[in-house]
Fold this sequence. Notes:
The protein is of the alpha/beta class and 218 residues long.
Amino acid sequence: MIGTVHVDPASATAVRDSIVALKPEVVALELDEARMMALESPKAQSGRGAGVSFLTMALLERFAGQMTGSPPGTEMLEAAKAAKAVGSRVEFIDLPITSTGAALRKLPRKEKAKLVVDALASLVVLPFSRINWSKVTEDMDSQIGAFRKRYPVLSRILIDTREEYMINRLKMVMASTTGQVLAVVGYGHRASLARALTGYMEGPGFATSFSWQVSTGN
């Protein structure tokens, strides 16, 4: 499992190099098919139907990508290209964006307001900040804990529901092959997925080690 920082340029390189070196049977991406199509054809994205909270997050991610020179999803595109180059099968393991969007439309007004304020504040601060991506991945549990406290409903939508779906999808993918499966997921998800999958991978028919890496640009 490769844990990435979605807008860190070094993550795309780490993902590509890992796939080329390992030549896994399957590359599993933290995407659904619709989001992959949107990444491949960004001008075709409508961005409609998910509400203000979704649009605010999309704007913030895109702006962060412009600041770092690596738009959100660059590492996923690199992973798909590398998988094709080495003959790996690509599987999409994330919850469909339509389901996430529908849930986001029901986000409580209080959390929507907080999200807008936080996103706008970040847009003001970000251009004047030097981002140290090695710090982003430090003490991730505390960062996620703070996020859960400020956004209890949003965290269930973006973290818990999606991780449950990804765990089930990864189990299906692993059951479909006797070869190596390499998953490319956001760094914030990798610990939870690791805990959930360790017992499953120790079951009959599996002789697989579990590891992860994250590129911090250093």
